[in-house]
Amino acid sequence: MLKAMPAECVDLAFADPPFNLNKEYSSKINDKISEVDYLEWCKNWLDEMVRVLKPGGALFLWNLPKWNIHLGAHLNQQLNFRHWISVDIKYSLPITNRLYPSHYSLLYYIKGEKPAIFHPDRTPISCCRHCGGEIRDYGGYKNKMNPKGVNLADVWTDIPPVRHAKYKKRSANALPLKLMDRIIAMSSDAGSVVLDPFGGSGTTFVAAELTGRHWIGSELDCSAIAERFASLQGDKEHLLDIQTNKNILFKQDDLARQKKSGRKLSKDYRLQINGDDCQCDTDEIVQSSLFVNS
Ligand SMILES: C[S@@+](CC[C@H](N)C(=O)[O-])C[C@H]1O[C@@H](n2cnc3c(N)ncnc32)[C@H](O)[C@@H]1O
Predict the structure, then answer these.
(1) Which of 38, 220, 227, 228 to mutate to test the pocket of ligand 1 (most atoms within 8 A of CB)?
(2) What is the three-class DSSP state of 15?
(3) Angle CA(256)–CA(148)–CA(150) in degrees, nearest 5?
(4) Disulfide-capable partner of 275 in 12, 97, 167, 294 (CB 3.0 to 4.6 Å)?
């Protein structure tokens, strides 16, 4: 499919290939080949992804650190490195004599000097799951905090593994919708073209579709994708929840927890309701059904 595509036609290219871990895929691919062959195979499709990427376009590669250290060295020869994003998700059991593997690598590259599109999400202040209180003390900087949330860092600790039966689209390997929404929101606009050559359960395509992007992809066994697209209602609700809880300084749930535990939010924070600055207190915000991100 990649070979059939014209050069420079894609705004955002993302890949989550098999990791050569001897996993079973419904497409029956051999997921245990030699390290040399695996890296050669990856470099082949990466070169095609680079070719079809528009100038200023973004390429993201999701893999284990073990593979991305090699694949990053290869991409460095053709693209501009932006970030190694660590996504804190435990993916293996502890192994004797090793550190506990606890992050996936998300490589982020740009074709050319400057990204054509870059608007990273802002994240809400992290709060205690029990009392809603801020986990970090922002001291005298509270009034300097952007009412739309905290700057996105290159370590993502807020991506939940796909565990919930309601959101889990198939037995293995589906990426969280929140991850794909974040990548797509950062490096594409409505109307942009998003590419993912390893469709799996179609998470990239769903996030792209529901946010008004065009998308193109491939998969050896498309049955899970076809089934998912037959009813997108669950994904729509999940995405609405994800989008309601980004680009805001406090999640409404956390404010409700603060209120329940008798905490008072500092008046120094600048908050917004419906995109407008507000001087209101926690009660008003918790009660407001208008507290949505703009
Ligand atoms: C790790 S999964 C991708 C999961 C996906 N990101 C999601 O969220 O559901 C990798 C997928 O690549 C597919 N695949 C492997 N080789 C392929 C190829 N040559 N062309 C297209 N798809 C391929 C496999 O069938 C598998 O579903």
Answers:
(1) 220
(2) strand
(3) 90
(4) 294
Choose the residue to mutate in 3, 28, 29 for probing ligand 1, maximizing ligand atoms within 8 Å of C-beta: 29
CA of 103 to the centre of ligand 1 (A): 20
**Whose CA is closest to 210, among 234, 187, 227, 226?**
234
88 CB-near residues (< 8 Å, 6+ apart) = 102, 103, 155, 156, 157, 159
How far apart are the two ends of the chain, measured CA to CA in Å? Answer: 37
- Residue-wise pLDDT for 139-196, tens only, equals 889 999 999 999 999 999 999 988 655 555 555 689 999 999 999 999 999 999 999 9
Ligand 1 atom closest to Cα of 175? 8
Atom of ligand 1 nearest to the CA of 224: 9
> Whole-angstrom Cα distance, residue 146 to residue 142?
9
Look up residue 126 and give its DSSP letter.
P
> Where do the structural domains in the chain lie, given as residue ranges?
10-123+158-230
Record the tokens describing residue 215, joined without a space: 């998308």
Domain 10-123+158-230 is in which class?
alpha beta
If you average pLDDT over every residue of the chain, what do you get? 91
Residue 12, pLDDT > 50, answer: yes
What's the CA-to-centroid distance between 16 and ligand 1, angstroms?
7
Separation of CA 25 and ligand 1 centre (Å): 8
